[in-house]
From TrEMBL, chains A, B, C, D:
Regions annotated as coiled coil: none
Molecular-function GO terms, alphabetical: metal ion binding; N-acetyldiaminopimelate deacetylase activity
UniProt cross-references to InterPro entries, sorted A to Z: Amidohydrolase (IPR017439), Bact_exopeptidase_dim_dom (IPR036264), Peptidase_M20 (IPR002933), Peptidase_M20_dimer (IPR011650)
Binding positions for Mn(2+) per the UniProt entry: C113, H115, E149, H176, H389
Organism: Saccharopolyspora elongata
Name of this chain's protein: Amidohydrolase
Record's keyword annotation contains Manganese: yes
Amino acid sequence: MGDLEAVLGRLDDIRADLTELYKDLHANPELSFAEHRTAAEVARRLEALGLEVTTEVGRTGVVGVLRNGDGPTVLLRADFDALPVLEQTGLDYASTCRGTDPDGNDVPVMHACGHDMHVTCQLGALDLLVAARDRWAGTIVAVFQPAEEIGAGAQAMIDDGFLDRFPKPDVCLGQHVFPFEAGAVGMISGPSMSAADGLKVTMFGRGAHGSQPQNAIDPVVMASATVMRLQTVVSREVAPSDTAVVTVGSIKAGTKDNIIPDQAELRVNIRSFDERVREHVIAAVQRIVRAEAIAAGAEREPEFERLTDFPVLVNDPDVTGRTTAALRKELGDDRVQELPPVVGSEDVGLFGTAAGVPTCYWFFGGTDREKWLAAKDAGTLNRDIPSNHSPFFAPVVEPTLTTGVTAMTMAALEWLAKS
Amino acid sequence: MGDLEAVLGRLDDIRADLTELYKDLHANPELSFAEHRTAAEVARRLEALGLEVTTEVGRTGVVGVLRNGDGPTVLLRADFDALPVLEQTGLDYASTCRGTDPDGNDVPVMHACGHDMHVTCQLGALDLLVAARDRWAGTIVAVFQPAEEIGAGAQAMIDDGFLDRFPKPDVCLGQHVFPFEAGAVGMISGPSMSAADGLKVTMFGRGAHGSQPQNAIDPVVMASATVMRLQTVVSREVAPSDTAVVTVGSIKAGTKDNIIPDQAELRVNIRSFDERVREHVIAAVQRIVRAEAIAAGAEREPEFERLTDFPVLVNDPDVTGRTTAALRKELGDDRVQELPPVVGSEDVGLFGTAAGVPTCYWFFGGTDREKWLAAKDAGTLNRDIPSNHSPFFAPVVEPTLTTGVTAMTMAALEWLAKS
Amino acid sequence: MGDLEAVLGRLDDIRADLTELYKDLHANPELSFAEHRTAAEVARRLEALGLEVTTEVGRTGVVGVLRNGDGPTVLLRADFDALPVLEQTGLDYASTCRGTDPDGNDVPVMHACGHDMHVTCQLGALDLLVAARDRWAGTIVAVFQPAEEIGAGAQAMIDDGFLDRFPKPDVCLGQHVFPFEAGAVGMISGPSMSAADGLKVTMFGRGAHGSQPQNAIDPVVMASATVMRLQTVVSREVAPSDTAVVTVGSIKAGTKDNIIPDQAELRVNIRSFDERVREHVIAAVQRIVRAEAIAAGAEREPEFERLTDFPVLVNDPDVTGRTTAALRKELGDDRVQELPPVVGSEDVGLFGTAAGVPTCYWFFGGTDREKWLAAKDAGTLNRDIPSNHSPFFAPVVEPTLTTGVTAMTMAALEWLAKS
Amino acid sequence: MGDLEAVLGRLDDIRADLTELYKDLHANPELSFAEHRTAAEVARRLEALGLEVTTEVGRTGVVGVLRNGDGPTVLLRADFDALPVLEQTGLDYASTCRGTDPDGNDVPVMHACGHDMHVTCQLGALDLLVAARDRWAGTIVAVFQPAEEIGAGAQAMIDDGFLDRFPKPDVCLGQHVFPFEAGAVGMISGPSMSAADGLKVTMFGRGAHGSQPQNAIDPVVMASATVMRLQTVVSREVAPSDTAVVTVGSIKAGTKDNIIPDQAELRVNIRSFDERVREHVIAAVQRIVRAEAIAAGAEREPEFERLTDFPVLVNDPDVTGRTTAALRKELGDDRVQELPPVVGSEDVGLFGTAAGVPTCYWFFGGTDREKWLAAKDAGTLNRDIPSNHSPFFAPVVEPTLTTGVTAMTMAALEWLAKS
């Protein structure tokens, strides 16, 4: 314990630099697989810390390896891509960046999911661990993953030979900043984050002048009717005791008011925790889309394209138990909570699944404690506290950064520390 | 009559050149107020014909004046902008052009409304009239108008001093190619084309991660519910004996499947022939949009922005009678039909309204006669014959071009010919 | 003219009795094919007038024949059934009657369509014609038809041998009270009233406890989605220049809040003036109903039952011209107007169609003139003037009654009067 | 144990009679507060068993008291009303009964929720307990409750002085037959059945003839749009991790296809397990109903009438633990399962709440074991196994009856048996 406090002591020396780094990353977000600036900065810092650095793993991923004698191999994972969201936080380090989305559109970009904090905390933890290398033995594989937001980065790294090119881990650890009380950490054993299936749906109508609906098969109406009908999947087809989400995150058709376009595009996101529910919901979405095309008299079948395919993230019970205990020792019992399963998705689990080893993935709070408590008391958490992917989402830098560095460091040492 | 046939005889000499011109214009469409290449070509040709040419009238409009002694002043009007439509005609002179829409997006551009044919026919008619200037007396004001598609070009020219800068017309004439039998012409006295009101509607929700609908106010659902409800304006609120159209030509919200966006945009186009109906429909659209925002629990009122504001186009009974008779003399009774009112809109009428003089605006067919008759017999006109603004719309060059040149020339001579 | 005024003079003698009769009929409405009391009263009065009376023609229909020497045979037709509507007029002779609908339900009954006035006026006209029998020659076939509201009575009388059992008419005349200025009459030549197609649609789901939607296929949602989608037939599939109405007059599913029922019933009414439009709309309704059942995952196809099948009512141009002229002579030009086609339906035309003779059917106003003019000026006719089938619909007795008797008498005499 | 087996032994003697009773009750169901025949039969049998019997407690309820020396007082509760469902089981003892619902309609009646089995089992258990009265001491208060289906019977009995007129219980026990494996029993400690709120919603439009939608404010469309919008409460406003159900069990408007009615009625049922969710959902339903009336241009606000108001049923942990253990001793561990919370509702909890004593309420299976297992393996439980309130729901008589009698007897003896 005394030892570990000494490890963490160095955080006071690097906190200003990490804060600087965090704000710089926040101001310079990059879309999935376009994280070139971010990857270069990560690589530069890993090299400065003395790790063996490999870049362009799975297109833009970075892996740093720190070998420190015999002992277990621990994979630490941070993701580093941002989102096509127009930042509205009003922060002085807010992003004004733009990027090009997969369809070639120019879009705003924002770290609306906190991956900038993940990178910062993991680099901070690595700094502490390097400084304290005499207190532990083993190998750290530090993964900086691209393209988590589109569920493609972990798979891309694995497909790029990750398991063969780097030391095989014994355990995979990672963390995510989340809109609860900053300073606190939470996790759950078992199914921890939902499966997520992304579908791009294209519905085909027939275009015509806006004044001649009788000559058209109106895809705007077709798509709107479909959106309304899709609400019934969760409201009527999923048992109240099961959990599923069907979100149409994007609807697009036409450009002018007076031209009826010839097609519409929906982007549908499906969440579930159970394979049977997942299959039913996907089938129901497809059934409804097809039937609404028939209702509209469409002459061409809708098309479905798979956008993402996240599996359920399962936290290993033993590893989760050990990690919980380790963090409680450092942070105190009341700051390490059991969370309910989160209806969000992550591809972090693919590393453990591919390697056949257990995973533990936890959350750390990013919301100002006072604000959080006030909103909780008022029952207005939903309204007042921006959640991940909101244009208003940004963690308070402290104590978020300190908690994230501490949690990652302590969790790694639980496996690596010399006894 | 012999005289007039002589006037039209020259068409054989210039038909090849006009055809070339038409295909060149078709292959090089330009969006509203961006018709720089088109305007330059028009100006070049007007100058070659010896007209007094003024460019940049109402931003990109061109006016040619031909003074030929004492007599009436006839305004001939062609519009020359194109549309943000991706051409799918498969023609060898199909457009592959792109342009920038008012929102800054890069979009495909196509002459999907036949304005290229309007320009070609009016230039052809002017050539014939110049060649036959000893047979008539008076003044021709040849208007080549920009930005008809957004209902802004005629007003822009008028606001730019059109009435003061050019001879005041006694009558305004114009024509539009339309998906009926090529070789034929049609018109109607009285209300001839509908009023058109374009509204951009922005509905405000609250963004959240796609897995947390409870933290969002989903604008995709809000907008879709609104589209479905807007259908009831025409189906339930407009008397069966009245005419109205409510088209949502564009719906846009979000970019990714797993982010619930914070707003949605609808572009709504409203057609009507009667002021009372027009007011009721516009009010009903606004009522529904506002109520659906309330139903969704929106925290911010929807916003409405006026996009277009076309008045009803009213053909003067006397002028229309004379024009009909004149065209029948040349084309034959069966090729000059009375059409029902067209539920499309035009700003051509603004010239006559501003000048306080009568207008006659007619339609000429652009569809291959055989195809037209076959589809008419089969009752599949709607399915088989692409209408204006369709990505498949393109007039057959002949006899469309010959008919358009002939009609414009004969109509002008009805007012100008020496008796 | 002097003669005819003499004929009408007797109206002053019988007006009080007719008023009494009207109020009695109004207070005692009977549903379609259940008009036993009404038929008995009609038969009694016809006999008193000396006509040959036949009852139970087409179940509850009554026919009176008045032979008066050589001359044309004129069919005069009044319908006499009422509607399942709960009267809310507040009149002292308002109905409090109830009846049994075709499904066996006990329902309120009201003369909400003015058939009581039709009967009264036709009996009044017959009285006048009997009294003036020396002034005309020919035969009157007075038809008192049941079950017009369900489009079944005329066909039932024809199927019951009407054409063989009674003198063949040369012309068919009839009239309907309508919510415009009392004292006035209106009609139009050609298509005068719309085709009407009534469909009963049954959609099949699967019942379950209200807390177990996952075990149900919810027919309430299925039917509601269908109603919303049906709005698009008129708003998107019918040309703005065509006329069609799709009304879902009744929706029924379930009885308790906490049981999801296993089926839903819609009653759909379709109006049109053109056979091609009619066919398209009926097909579109069926397409949408079937597709919405598929969207819901229904295990059984929806069922369609034909409720009514009214053809377009076409007024013969010659007969309509003569009738208009005759009424103008008596009522004055300004009280006999040309009306636009009415989007209501009638089976009166079946008599003429079956006999191969022309029909003229006109409307007479039932709304207090002051109220009518005030609402017209205020543009609130729709809101302030109850229309047929409204629970508030009731003609003002005068001058409605006088006008109806006069119009029917004069129209008959146009054909029968000795020259 | 040996003792208890002796107690249950008598079941062989009375099983035929109980089976007879069950089929008789099933064939003669009665609606809520109309259970006169049932109450009479229950009273007759309780008297025959020697209990003190009081009838008409809370209108039609029956209470039997069996005093057997000093000891605890155990309340045993069975409910005995049936549902307005048309039985479609095809059983030879199927109901053909009809009744009058609260709106005065004649409706079919069926024991579609198994209350006939509850009555039979409780009478069987009382018979066994009377026969074995030397083995236990204390007081049994046997409650036969009316009107559970409308959530009114328990409250009615309490309002009728139940707590003052009968011995105060120390514990409340009850059971419900459910569509799982017959022979098995299941329960859960804590929130066990959901809150249920029933709302009757009346939406007001304006009636008109079906051909004149412009004169109407169509309540069929208004109600259908509302139903579609209500789906979004569960799909968008309730957190995926929370549980809620919004069922529109009944929609009614209009009677004829060609009359647009002037109002529509929805019956909405809301389920939840958490007070905050409950309040949010009820408020959201009201917000949507009101906004959809505004969207329709309604001139009168919708009205809400409370139909039912079931609280959450909470099983006391200690009592549930003891009961589970007691039943496992008799039935075996594998036949007494822990169930997830049930999204159905019950007013049984009101007795315990009013008396301030703990409740345990369990479920016993009613589905043939072979059928159940086959459907479970096939993943077709939802499709193949009729649930409560289905027209096909009927427990297999055995081993359901034996299990229900056994469970009730053993649970009572857990508190009453002489040690």
